[in-house]
Design goal:
By secondary structure, this protein is α+β, with helices and mostly antiparallel strands. The protein has one domain. The protein contains one helix and seven strands, in the order H-E-E-E-E-E-E-E. Strands 3-2-1-5 form a four-stranded antiparallel beta sheet. The protein has a three-stranded antiparallel beta sheet with strand order 4-6-7, covered by helices on one side. It is rod-shaped and about 115 Å long. The model has no long low-confidence stretch (mean pLDDT about 80).
């Protein structure tokens, strides 16, 4: 007599395809999560870079205002790269990978308060920009009298 041995320990093709499909879905969700996190990190890093650059430029302008009383900001293409460079009293203070907009471009006296508006934009991603606005109070030299 012939005996048939049944071995039911293996996987069917349908079970194997189902496991592969579920594994693919899980991997896709994990990859999407990490990709979203990496994009958010890059955007945050760029915004911090723009903020730091705007603070650096604004600090240089504030120091020039309070120490010298006047300054001129030129925004011309000094090095021939096709973008405007910010030059403060003859010294280039701009970064070559960023685009700047400043108002006003010239202050002739620190006797009157002035509003400075600076916008810094990333050249690689023009949608990323930061604008700083500050008021510089007037500096008036008054004689101090001792009673």
């Amino acid at each position: 007599m012939r005996t048939i041995i049944k071995n039911e320990k293996g996987l069917t093709l349908i079970e194997l395809l189902g496991a592969i499909a579920i594994f693919g879905i899980v991997i896709t969700v994990i990859f999407s999560f990490f990709s979203f996190g990496a994009n958010g990190y890059q955007k945050g890093e760029m915004m911090v870079r723009l903020q730091n650059e705007a603070n650096r430029i604004m600090t240089a302008l504030t120091v020039a205002y309070y120490s010298e009383g006047n300054f001129t900001v030129e925004s011309g293409d000094e090095n021939g790269d096709g973008r405007a460079d910010i030059t403060l009293n003859g010294a280039v203070i701009s970064d070559t990978t960023l685009l700047y907009s400043l108002s006003p471009e010239e202050i002739t006296s620190n006797d009157e308060p002035v509003e400075l508006v600076l916008t810094v934009t990333d050249l690689m991603n023009p949608a990323e920009a930061i604008t700083l606005k500050t008021y510089l109070r007037s500096v008036r030299n008054h004689a101090i009298s001792n009673p």
